[in-house]
From TrEMBL:
Protein name: DNA 3'-5' helicase
EC number(s) on file: 5.6.2.4
Residues annotated as binding ATP: 54-61
Annotated catalysed reactions: Couples ATP hydrolysis with the unwinding of duplex DNA by translocating in the 3'-5' direction; ATP + H2O = ADP + phosphate + H(+)
Membrane recorded as keyword: no
Record PANTHER family: ATP-DEPENDENT DNA HELICASE SRS2 (PTHR11070:SF2), UVRD / RECB / PCRA DNA HELICASE FAMILY MEMBER (PTHR11070)
PROSITE patterns to which the protein is assigned, alphabetical: UVRD_HELICASE_ATP_BIND (PS51198), UVRD_HELICASE_CTER (PS51217)
Residues of the UvrD-like helicase C-terminal domain: 315-582
UniProt family annotation: Belongs to the helicase family. UvrD subfamily.
Domain spans labelled UvrD-like helicase ATP-binding: 33-314
Alphabetical keyword list: ATP-binding, DNA-binding, Helicase, Hydrolase, Isomerase, Nucleotide-binding
SUPFAM superfamilies recorded: P-loop containing nucleoside triphosphate hydrolases
DNA sequence: ATGAAGAAACGTCCG
DNA sequence: GTTTCTTCAT
C-alpha cells in the first residue's frame, strides 16, 4: 500500500518527503516513468500467464527489468522468489546490471536469474544423487562430447569414417533438444544413424557419461525433467519457490526448455514470456517458433501485450522491414510503427561480383568515415561467415579498423582448452577426457602406445587414467623412458592438488602452466599467433582471480562461452546476421542478398517453406538492426564452393516496398565501360523476378564474358576478351576442379553418400543437378557421386 | 613423432 | 579457392 503511494508520488519530485525518500531508495521512485502504455501494461500485469510480443527495438529488456523491479518494489516477491531465464550469459549479465540500476543493491541477490543451463546446473547439483550423479559432476564442452562419442562409436565396432561422430552428436543434440531420453526416441529415428544403431549408441553414450560423472549441455535440462518426473516432491518445492517466472527470447526455446518451463509454471502460473516470433532464427538449433505461437493455447487466459512502438529506426527502415516480414504466414502479426522521421530510404545496389561488392561497400564506409560518422556505428551483416573474408581483405587494404564479432569463442581456443584440461585434472583426478587431452601436450614422448597401455590398465583395475598412470609406472609394462616421464607427470598432479590447499588458486594455476611446460611450448613457437595465445592464457589466469575457488571457476567456464569481447574503439563491426540479433547500429550494410545465399538454399532444401520463412525473419532482423541507414547489396556473380557461378538477386529484395527503397547504381568504373548495366538487372520496374527472366539470366551466366577475378586486367582484356573469354574461363574452371567433364548423363541413376540415391536432372561441366529421392534437388560435384 | 601431401568441408552457433 | 583434418612416409 504505502509502496504504491510512493510510486504515485514520484512524479511530484518537488515534495520534500519524496526527495528525502528518493535519497534513501533512489531507484524505487519513478521506475514506471517513461514507459509507454503498452509497456506499462506488460509490467503491471503481474498475475497469471502473460505473453509480451516485443518487436525489434520496442524496449523489450526494459519491460523485463522493470517488471522484476516492480514485483520487488510492490512487495509481491523478494529477489529470490523470482526465476528469470535468458539464453545467453550476456543477456543475463545485462539484465542483472539493469535491475541493479533500477532498484539498487536489493537486486544484486537474484540467485535465480541466469541462463537455462546455469539454472539447470544449479538445480542438478542440489539433487545429483537422485539422477545418478555426484554433485561435483563435470560439464562437457562440445569437444569433449565429440571425443567421447568417437569412443562410443568405435566401441560399437562401427566405421567412424562412414558415420562420423559429428553426425551422431547432431542427432543426439536434436533428441535432447526435443526432450527425448534414449528410450523415448521414436523407433524410426533411432535407426537413422550407423546402420540403425542410433538409439543404442545414444544409450551407450549416456552410460559413458554416467560413469564419468559428467553431463553435456543437453543433459542440464533433460536431467532436470527426469528429476522432476521421478520426484514430484522436488518438483513441487520448485513450483512453490518460484512465485514469478520470466522468460526472455521465448521464441528461441526448444521443446526441452518448453517442458522445463511448463512444469515449473504449473505451480503458481505466474509466467511471463517475452519474445518476438518475427525474430525466431534458431530453428536449425531446435528452437520451436510454435512455442510462442501456441502460448495462448498452452496457458489459457493468458494476457497478450503487443509492443509495436519502435524507438530505434527511421520510418523507411521500419516500413521495409515490416513489409518484408508481412509475407510470412506463420506469425502472430505485429506492425511496427515509429514517431521518428522517415529518414533515408533503404538502398539496394547490385555489383558485378562479390569482390566488387566488397570494394564498393568498403569505399562507402570510407566516405562515411570522411564525413565524420563514427565507425563504431557501422556494421556489416553477412549471411554466412565465408562472406567475411573478402570484406575483411578489403577493409585491411583500405586501412579501416574492424572487429569480427562471434568468431572463435575464447574458451574454444586450443590453448584455453588445454590449460583448462590441466586445471580440471588437478581439481578432479578422475577427469579422463582432460587427461587424454594433455598427456602429450606439450610433447613429452607419450604417444599412442603408452595411452593404449594406460587404457588397458585403467580398465582392468577400474580406476581413472591418472590413477592408472601412477600404478603402471610401478610395473614393467612400459619402456623405461615413458615410464619415468609418466611417473613425473603423476607426481606433478599430486603436488599441484596439494598446492591448491595452501595457495591462492590463481597462483597455483600459473604454477601448473609453467611447471607442465605448457607456457614454454608457446614461447618456443615463433608463429604470429603464439603471442596472442600467451596473452589469452594470461587472461585466463587473471579471470581465475574473480572466483572463490577452482571448482567455482571451472563451472563458470563450462557455462560461459564467450569471454566478452573488448568493447569500444572506433571500429567497423563485422558479423553474421545471427550474431547481430539484439544489437543496433546507425548504419547497417547487408551484402550478399542473392537467391541461394540469402535466402540460403540449404535452409529451403531442408525445411521447405518453414525454412524460407526463417530466412525471411533473418532478413527482418538484419534490417531492423539499423537506426538510420540500411544498405542492401547483391552480386551478380559469386564464387560458391570455389566455382564461379551466376546468381540472382534475392527474392527478398522484390518483397521490399518500393516507396521506401532507393536503387543505387554502382559508381562507374574504368574497367567496365558504359555498357556494364546492359545485362544488369534493374531491380524495380522490370520483370526480372519472373521465371523467364531468371532463366535468361541463368543461361547467359553460364557463358560469362569475363571471370570475376580477371576483371581488373584492364580494358584490353575487357574489350578483346568478349568473344574469346568464355572458353578460356570455362577451361580454367574445369581444369581446376576435376580435370574432366562429367561422365554422367541426364537421367542417369546415381548414389551420393550423404543424400542417397537420385537421378541426374542436369549436367554442367562437372557439376550435376540431381533430384534425390529423399533430399530433393541439389547441386553436387560429380566426384561425390557414383553410378547406382 | 613430425612434417608433407592429399582429402573433405564449406550454414547460421548459445550453453 | 581456402582451410582444416587425416594419412602417409620418413
Amino acid at each position: 500500500m504505502s509502496r504504491d503511494a510512493a510510486g504515485a508520488e514520484a512524479p511530484s519530485s518537488t515534495s520534500i518527503a519524496a526527495r528525502a525518500r528518493a535519497a534513501v531508495v533512489p531507484q524505487a521512485a519513478g521506475y514506471l516513468d517513461g514507459l509507454n502504455p503498452e509497456q506499462r501494461r506488460a509490467v503491471e500485469a503481474t498475475e497469471g500467464p502473460v505473453l509480451v510480443l516485443a518487436g525489434a527495438g520496442t524496449g523489450k529488456t526494459r519491460v523485463l527489468t522493470t517488471r522484476i523491479a516492480h514485483l520487488i518494489a510492490i512487495g509481491r516477491a523478494r529477489p529470490f522468489d523470482i526465476l528469470a531465464v535468458t539464453f545467453t550469459n550476456k543477456a543475463a549479465r545485462e539484465m542483472k546490471e539493469r535491475i541493479g540500476a533500477l532498484i539498487g543493491p536489493a537486486g544484486e541477490g537474484m540467485p535465480w536469474l541466469g541462463t537455462f543451463h546455469a539454472i539447470g546446473t544449479k538445480i542438478l547439483r542440489r539433487h545429483a544423487e537422485l539422477v545418478g550423479l555426484r554433485s561435483d559432476f563435470t560439464i562437457l564442452g562440445t569437444d569433449d562430447q565429440l571425443r567421447l562419442l568417437k569412443q562410443v562409436i568405435e566401441a560399437a565396432n562401427i566405421d567412424e569414417k562412414r558415420w562420423p561422430a559429428r553426425g551422431l552428436a547432431q542427432a543426439i543434440d536434436g533428441w535432447k533438444n526435443r526432450g527425448l531420453a534414449p528410450e523415448q526416441v521414436p523407433a524410426g529415428e533411432a535407426g537413422a544413424f550407423g546402420f540403425g544403431k542410433g538409439g543404442p549408441l545414444y544409450a551407450a553414450y549416456q552410460e559413458r557419461l554416467r560413469t564419468l560423472n559428467a553431463v553435456d549441455f543437453g543433459d542440464l535440462l533433460l536431467l532436470c525433467l527426469k528429476l522432476w518426473r521421478d520426484h514430484p516432491d522436488v518438483l513441487a518445492s520448485y513450483q512453490d519457490r518460484f512465485r514469478y517466472i520470466l522468460v526472455d527470447e521465448y521464441q528461441d526455446t526448444n521443446v526441452a526448455q518448453y517442458l522445463w518451463l511448463r512444469l515449473l509454471a504449473q505451480g503458481r502460473r505466474n509466467v511471463c514470456c517475452v519474445g518476438d516470433d518475427d525474430q525466431s532464427i534458431y530453428g536449425w538449433r531446435g528452437a520451436e517458433v510454435d512455442n510462442i505461437l501456441r502460448f495462448e493455447h498452452d496457458f489459457p487466459g493468458a494476457v497478450v501485450v503487443r509492443l509495436e512502438r519502435n524507438y530505434r529506426s527511421t520510418g523507411h527502415i521500419l516500413a521495409a522491414a515490416s513489409t518484408l516480414i508481412a509475407r510470412n504466414e506463420g506469425r502472430l502479426g505485429k506492425t511496427l510503427h515509429t514517431e521518428a522521421a522517415a529518414g533515408e530510404r533503404v538502398t539496394v545496389m547490385g555489383a558485378w561480383d562479390s569482390e566488387e561488392e566488397a570494394r564498393l561497400l568498403c569505399e562507402s564506409i570510407e566516405s562515411m568515415q570522411a564525413r565524420g560518422e563514427p565507425l563504431s556505428q557501422v556494421a556489416v551483416l553477412v549471411r554466412i561467415s565465408a562472406q567475411m573474408r573478402e570484406i575483411e581483405d578489403r577493409l585491411v587494404q583500405l586501412g579501416l579498423p574492424y572487429r569480427v564479432i562471434g568468431g572463435p569463442r575464447f574458451y574454444e581456443r586450443a590453448e584455453i582448452r588445454d590449460a583448462l584440461a590441466y586445471l580440471r585434472l588437478t581439481a578432479n583426478p578422475a577427469d579422463d577426457l582432460a587427461f587424454e587431452r594433455i598427456i602429450n601436450t606439450p610433447k613429452r614422448g607419450l604417444g599412442d602406445a603408452t595411452l593404449q597401455a594406460l587404457h588397458g590398465h585403467a580398465r582392468r583395475q577400474s580406476v581413472p587414467l591418472l590413477q592408472a598412470a601412477r600404478l603402471i609406472v610401478e610395473t614393467e609394462e612400459l619402456k623405461p623412458k615413458p615410464r619415468s616421464t609418466l611417473r613425473a607427470l603423476g607426481q606433478c598432479f599430486g603436488r599441484w592438488a596439494k598446492l591448491l590447499e595452501a595457495q591462492p588458486h590463481a597462483e597455483v594455476a600459473q604454477t601448473i602452466l609453467e611447471e607442465s611446460g605448457y607456457t614454454e611450448m608457446w614461447q618456443k613457437e615463433r608463429t604470429a599467433d603464439a603471442a596472442g595465445r600467451l596473452e589469452n592464457l594470461k587472461e585466463l589466469v587473471r579471470s581465475l582471480e574473480e572466483f572463490p575457488d577452482l571448482p567455482a571457476f571451472l563451472e563458470h567456464i563450462s557455462l560461459v562461452m564467450d569471454a566478452s569481447e573488448a568493447e569500444g574503439g572506433e571500429r567497423v563491426s563485422l558479423m553474421t546476421l545471427h550474431a547481430a540479433k539484439g544489437l543496433e547500429f546507425d548504419t547497417v550494410f547487408l551484402p550478399g542478398w542473392e537467391d541461394g545465399l540469402f535466402p540460403n538454399q540449404r535452409a529451403i532444401d531442408e525445411s521447405g517453406r518453414a525454412g524460407l520463412e526463417e530466412e525471411r525473419r533473418l532478413a527482418h532482423v538484419g534490417i531492423t538492426r539499423a537506426r538510420k541507414r540500411a544498405k542492401i547489396s547483391f552480386a551478380v556473380n559469386r564464387r560458391i564452393h570455389g566455382l564461379w557461378s551466376s546468381t540472382i538477386p534475392s527474392r527478398f529484395i522484390d518483397e521490399l516496398p518500393e516507396s521506401s527503397v532507393e536503387v543505387i547504381e554502382a559508381p562507374a568504373n574504368f574497367s567496365y565501360g558504359p555498357s556494364r548495366f546492359d545485362r544488369q538487372p534493374t531491380p524495380f520496374g522490370s520483370s526480372y523476378g519472373t521465371p523467364g527472366w531468371q532463366r535468361a539470366q541463368a543461361n547467359t551466366a553460364g557463358q560469362d564474358r569475363f571471370g570475376g577475378q580477371d576483371r581488373f586486367g584492364g580494358q584490353d582484356r575487357f574489350g578483346g576478351g568478349r568473344r574469346g573469354g568464355p572458353q578460356q574461363i570455362e577451361g580454367t574452371l574445369v581444369a581446376k576442379s576435376t580435370g574432366s567433364p562429367s561422365s554422367f548423363a541426364v537421367g542417369a541413376r546415381i548414389f551420393h553418400t550423404k543424400f542417397g540415391p537420385g537421378s541426374v536432372a542436369a549436367v554442367d561441366g562437372n557439376k550435376l543437378t540431381v533430384d534425390f529421392d529423399k533430399a530433393g534437388r541439389k547441386m553436387v560435384l560429380d566426384s561425390f557421386v557414383q553410378p547406382a
